From TrEMBL:
Region (Disordered): 177-208
Gene3D superfamilies xref list: Jann2411-like domain (1.10.3300.10)
Compositional bias annotation for Basic and acidic residues: 183-196
Organism this protein belongs to: Streptomyces triticagri
Residue spans of biased composition, Polar residues class: 198-208
Official protein name in the record: Zf-CGNR multi-domain protein
Domain of life where this protein originates: Bacteria
InterPro entries noted in UniProt: ABATE, ABATE_dom_sf, Znf_CGNR
Domain Zinc finger CGNR: 141-183
Taxonomic lineage: Bacteria, Bacillati, Actinomycetota, Actinomycetes, Kitasatosporales
Amino acid sequence: MELTHYSDYAVRLVNSEEPGRGTDSLTTVDAVRELFGGNASAARRATDADVTRFRSVRARLRAVFEAADSGEETLAVDLLNSLLLEFPVSPQISGHDYRDDDGRPLWHMHLADHPSNATAGYAAIASMGLAFHLTEHGVDRLGLCEASPCRNAYLDTSTNRSRRYCSDRCATRANVAAYRARKREEREEPRDDRSRSTGRTADSAQSR
């Protein structure tokens, strides 16, 4: 498993809240458990107390994306480093689910579940995954969706670093909005411009 895969943990947590729309899906322990995806053993350790703790980590991870999106690379790195220091990972060599043609394990690095609590484990994996992605691909690969009011986090994996939206849906919505805005501007051409255009035409006709 590529360690950058763990960066998805950070994106999932950050996007559990949409500040621009005033929505927050992280309100119950079941919502916390859903964030773990297929990691059922780690999800089972979550308790009601983790809801508040997860929200705190979420705010700090969003701050990393906000700094990166604003071009403040050093700030983004500093914020992420503070999370890495507070929530250290437990790396292990693993061979689960990966076998070669002869049935032997394909050994790879794996981030083990944190023995402390669900929040510490999730925060450690999310922070380390984001750190791997940042150092492998660059700070500018961390972004926030530009399709207002959406401000979901995303990881830009495009070949030319051109991603601006969190999803195809938001990209389509933004393009439609831009098209409608252009059409509206064309319809609302200032009257004085039209008058000047009409006046020039009349003057030309009289001179002839």
